[in-house]
Amino acid sequence: MKAVAITFPAREVRVIDVPEPRLHSPTEVKVRTLEVGVCGTDQDILKGHHGAAPKGEDHLILGHECVGEVVEVGAHVQGLRPGDLVVPRVRRPCPHTRCPACRHGHPDFCVTGDYTERGIQGAHGFCAEFFVEDAAYLHRADDGLRDVAVLTEPLTVAEKGLREVAHIQTRLPWKHTPGKALVLGAGPVAQLGAMALMRAGYETTVYSRSPKPNVKAEASEAMGAPYISSKEVTVEALKEQLGGVDLIYEATGASKVAFDSLKVLEENGVLIFTGVPGREEPLELKGDEVLGQLVLGNRVMFGTVNAADSDFSAALEDLARFRARWPGQLEKLITQRHPPSDFAKVVEEKGGIKHVITFQGAGR
């Protein structure tokens, strides 16, 4: 079968022929890949910042954002059958008994760093005509989400972040309603994050670099989230305009704008970091000022990565809610669908919002 892989040590991306996978366990499921999303993590793998082949191999099949269709199930699999639409999780637990997170079913909080991630670290991904996965790592999706279920994994970033915020803000027992939220960035994780925040009841604004008009601004404002360009409005002016926010959802990987945004965060507010820094931009941080903002304002900053079982389930439920609330908007987040042979080109030259590799029709 055909698969998109990166070879090591050259880090060359190409379509290769690999054996079609087979079931080796009664709890496994064989899946025909339909679509795979391309994101900044794939770009980092190509640049050498991330990525490792499975042990003993010289290539890694890419792709970690995926939706597929079940074609075969093992004898002990329950709840899935051929024809079902499924979304796979990405991270697998580390093997160490000393890791309480992995031993309790939360590899997204792994403390050893020795986990594997399909399509990223030590395990082949989903950018192939077929893949085999244990049923425990598959989430059944409603067939009505077929055209947008590839957005599930990037949405889980927001789902996990909001889940953590809910725990943190139990410290404010008098606060029963969400307030204002600011989303930094306007890419797929940011757009989906804005949707999740609005669904949760936050009055949400998107703050990103490019001045209007642009496709990202159109997408955010179509769902009712005002778009403001950081090239036109400084953080100080943004504070005056918004009057402060209760939650900041960072989805840029730009450290300067992330820390500058603290000026907009109200007392008792929370700043979520989701973007992995990749621009290597200089940052002059006034340590005393930042520490003062955190301590004197009871503010919280935290980073979040990957997602848990519950976050994937929540994301699939929210995708259905989003379609009902904003008809056609999820579809508009997908800028273009490409053949597998375009993977490297898409990673290097992608514009718009979300680009997807499609295998629809492959293997039939």
Plain-language structure description:
The chain is an alpha/beta fold and 364 residues long. It folds into 2 domains: 2-141 and 334-358, Medium-chain alcohol dehydrogenases, catalytic domain (Quinone Oxidoreductase, Chain A, domain 1, Alpha-Beta Complex), CATH 3.90.180.10; 156-303, Rossmann fold. The protein is built from 11 helices and 19 strands. It has helices at 40-47, 100-103, 152-168, 188-199, 215-222, 235-242, 255-260, 287-296, 309-325, 329-333, 343-349; strands spanning 2-7, 12-17, 28-38, 59-61, 65-73, 85-88, 91-92, 116-118, 122-123, 130-134, 138-141, 180-184, 203-208, 227-229, 245-250, 265-273, 300-303, 334-338, 354-358. The strands form 4 sheets. Strands 3, 5, 6, 10, 11, 18 and 19 form a 7-stranded mixed β-sheet that branches. A 6-stranded parallel β-sheet has the order 14-13-12-15-16-17. Helix 3 (152-168) crosses helix 4 and helix 3 packs across helix 9. The model has no long low-confidence stretch (mean pLDDT 94).
